[in-house]
Amino acid sequence: MNLELVSFKLCPYVQRAVIALKEKQLPYTITYIDIMDPPDWFKEISPLGKVPLLKVDNEVLFESAVISEYINETTSGSLHPDDALIRAKHRGWIEFASSCLETIYTLNTTDDQEAFDEAVETMKSRLEKIESILSAGPLFSGEKFSLVDAAFAPLFMRLNLLNNLAGISTLDGLSRVSAWSNQLLQRETVQKSVVEEFPMIYRGMLKMKAGIAGSKVED
Ligand SMILES: N[C@@H](CCC(=O)N[C@@H](CS)C(=O)NCC(=O)O)C(=O)O
């Protein structure tokens, strides 16, 4: 089976699939495109014009959750809980992580102070919600890495960068979420799920978007 992931270097959704591939130690190749100016071959095979895509031999999968589930189901050692009810809850929290990624997009890009302040508040209240349901750790549901961890790691990487580069802090006072975030950011599969120059590219994106976050990044 030949696996090729189609990616954009800044995309948090692609990163989830990369983490799943690395956790499962699956060999794959990665092809980067510029999502602002995608090539024709990509437009032909991506139903929504979005990354990630996973090419499995001659078939194409789209949507990060679907891709991660496929990677999980076709390899040994599940990244989901055995119990159907707990598994369903995990899938709910994966969706929740996606809604946090929508908020981070606003945080990264908006030049409207009101929209920015609202996004900070939304992010904080979502993180508080997670704080209230988290296990004692070290990961989302204890010792075992799951697809929920893979879904949240890209969010924590970006929140960490927003804090380091622009002084936008969202995790203050949330001890469990902070500890979980630290665990994930130290994990090898997470660190290797982005290109080495990711922080620099992220910084460049904030500056290029010229929103409120970008204005807080030092020149
Ligand atoms: N629900 C999708 C979201 C993927 C997504 O939004 N990808 C962005 C890049 S991070 C994209 O390709 N955007 C291009 C567009 O919307 O035209 C998933 O989970 O895979």
Care to describe what's here?
By secondary structure, this protein is of the alpha+beta class. The chain folds into 2 domains: 3-73, 3-Layer(aba) Sandwich (Glutaredoxin); 84-216, Glutathione S-transferase Yfyf (Class Pi), Chain A, domain 2 (Up-down Bundle), CATH 1.20.1050.10. 58% of the residues lie in helices and 8% in strands. It has helices at residues 12-23, 40-45, 64-73, 84-109, 113-133, 147-166, 175-186, 188-191, 198-209, 212-216, and strands at residues 3-7, 29-32, 53-56, 59-62. The protein has a 4-stranded mixed sheet, with helices on one face. β3 and β4 (59-62) form a beta hairpin. α1 packs parallel to α3 (64-73) and α1 packs across α6. The protein is globular. The model has no long low-confidence stretch (mean pLDDT 97). Glutathione is lined by residues 8, 11, 13, 35, 49-52, 63-65.
Number of domains: 2
At CATH level 3, the topology of the largest domain is Glutathione S-transferase Yfyf (Class Pi), Chain A, domain 2
What is the chain-wise order of helices and strands?
Answer: EHEHEEHHHHHHHH
Q: Strands across the major sheet, in which order?
A: 2-1-3-4
Distance between the termini: 46 Å
Largest sheet: 4 strands, mixed
Number of E strands: 4
